[in-house]
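Forwarding the complex inputs:
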Amino acid sequence: MSEEYVLELQHIQKVYPGVVALKDVSLSLKKGEILALIGENGAGKSTLIKTCSGAVIPTSGKIVVNGKEFDSMTPQLAAENGIAIIYQEFNNVVELSAAENLFLGRPIRKGIMVDKAAMEREAEKAFRQLNIKIDPKTPMKHLTVGYQQMVEIAKAIQQNANILIMDEPSAPLTSAEVESMFAVVELLRQKGVSIIYISHRLEEIFRLSDRIVVLRDGEYIKTLTTKESVIDELIHLMVGRELTESYPPRKNCIRHDEIILEIKNVCGNGDKDINLEIHKGEIVGLGGLIGAGRTELAQMIFGAVKKDSGQFIFKGKEINPKDPREAIDLGIALVPEDRKRHGAMLGLSVKNNINMPIYTKISTLSAINSKQELEISKKYKKQLEIKTPTLNQLVKNLSGGNQQKVILARWLAANSELVIFDEPTRGIDVGAKYEIYKLMNDLVENEGKTILLISSEMEELMGMSDRIIVLAEGKITGALQKDAFNPDTIMAYASAIKEGHSA
Amino acid sequence: MRGKVLYQIKDKAIWVVFIALFIGFSIANPRFLDPNNLITVLRQVSMYGIASIGMTFVILIAGIDLSIGSIITIVNIVCAYMMVNFGMNMWLAILLSLVLSTLIGLLNGLMVSSIGIPALIATFATQTIVEGASYLISGGTPVFGFDERFKVIGQGYLGPIPVPVIIMVVCFAAGSFILNKTYFGRYFYAVGGNEEAAKLSGIRVGRVKYMIYALSGFFAGLAGIVLLSRTNSGQPTAGKGYEFDVITCVVLGGVSVSGGYGKFSNVIAGVMIIGILSNGMVLMNISSYTQMVIKGIILAAAVGFDCIQKKRQAV
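Prediction (whole assembly, two chains):
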């Protein structure tokens, strides 16, 4: 059995404290085939391939490469055994030439000197083999992303890789570049290289792959032969679950006629021509895959990044926030995705964190009114049930859920009207999640707030939103009213499959 | 629980060091305890104390200001020059000198915040520029011959207490007020702790940086005025090396070089330690070269201590 496979992952398990990232996942790769690996965000694709490179050490399971068994890999072992990974971020030195990058770390030498001419000759040969038209002397920084990726692939082949793992290789490329990349990948297959191809673009998978492995929530789901499968089935396998978690009940849609934020033809930060109306009292869900441009849209609304063109009309007036301060003063708040890096100020107290945006308002001649500071903190600690021994406790000592509540308290204190939640429950345990959901409901029901919810968790998105807008590659690809929520449809929109195609 | 106790010990450790040094020098040389000597220590330390306030803010946001020595120098020269060569009123000369020092600080802010030059390089460049300018203005020779009243600032007494010490105490009070009682203080900690989160909670980080470097320039300028009055002549080398001692005072006071953590009360301890250390070493006839070696080791040790703490926390 083993002989026909060049790479086998057997019963791979990866447990992090509190989280099982991979549960008994097995996969085998035949010589000269392209095996697609698909799954939603967080399905465990990246963790799985990192076990092959040595970046992740599996808790249990075996990795069999060309018949040799390993418990875990190291980067050196992976390279020695012919495994190469093309990540989305390239490992190149932009100031050096294509040839020098090809031989990065192991240059051809003549005595103690680097033999540039020989490297350029060899690079020329390597590029020609793959039908890549790059002048080896060109500095990396003058090459487009597509060509930089080609150099990266050529480097892997130059190092005798016969197993190539590509993580979302088409994500940074233009459509013309994608075509050239496909040609190279095809050529490699003919040369007998085995490829694991990760992508969320299902159309590509149907074009390229021989077989497809589906992962979901860190579990192996199924292996399919590409020729015999259809898109709908794949989507269902990727999403494939009923709503299991319960969501706190909410009075049905308190949507007012008043439009609180109108987004008109907004372009910039990777987004293209976004049009959206958000009514007061709604929870609007933004669905899509990582990198679809949802966070990017939030950054523009919040003034963290400038838009290129288009308009934001907030409460009937065009706004152009040049920094978050301006957006906050207008009544817009952002609960960022990365709580520890962008949200909470971990080294400061609960009290300081809550009052941070309003210090200028509770100060006289720049001296803080400490009584007011304390009262505001107490009020929101009580309202949001923030569990902290004292208000002087440093935020880093709080649990994830309570940290999130502190950030929420901050925006309530700032009297924000539109609150953008970016992945509000990431890394928060189930009990605390439910509390955050209750608070979100409370915001729209009793506080008259409006919520824009970015979430990659399908259940959360469907459970909390009044309607869902789906983005893919910086564009709105679909909109669904509550009664039409359906994970398969959302996934289809998120994978940017044109309407009609999937039906 | 153990962490809390450790934290409290760490928090007060610098005062323990201070007391230990104090007792040590008292035993080693009885002259150390002479009230006149102790007053001298305070007077000597006053310039460091004044300049350390701005530096505390700078290091709190994980910055550095290498230009304060040269700011002290140029204030010496310019203030002296205006009083002697233009016959300017001393208060006006002082005021203009402080404006100049604040503007130099703003220049640092511009380079660090708006252009994005690393603080180390930006203020290093400013140091050289300002030092060069001081020589150009003075022609390399001292400027002297001031009004008698000008002496009071650096040499006068209010009762038994030297005027510079009073100025230092007032500055400490002001610094402590800014840091602990105003929203600017909160902003400093927020920017130092997590610049991105600070920005996303509505702090205009750029303005905060401008303000901090300007304050650093201002307090250095004030230290320069006190020094000028003490020496009674504007010297083109007056402030040389001051940045080193002031940075040592601040990091010895436990302000983390990676930003976001530090207490003003401990910085005062840092200043006092450097003060008695310099004085004690002179009393013990330790050569100035040896003193340099020791001071260098102290700076490295203070920062090293902070870094080791950070590493432990990360694990």
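Residues 499-503 of chain A have pLDDT under 50 and may be disordered.
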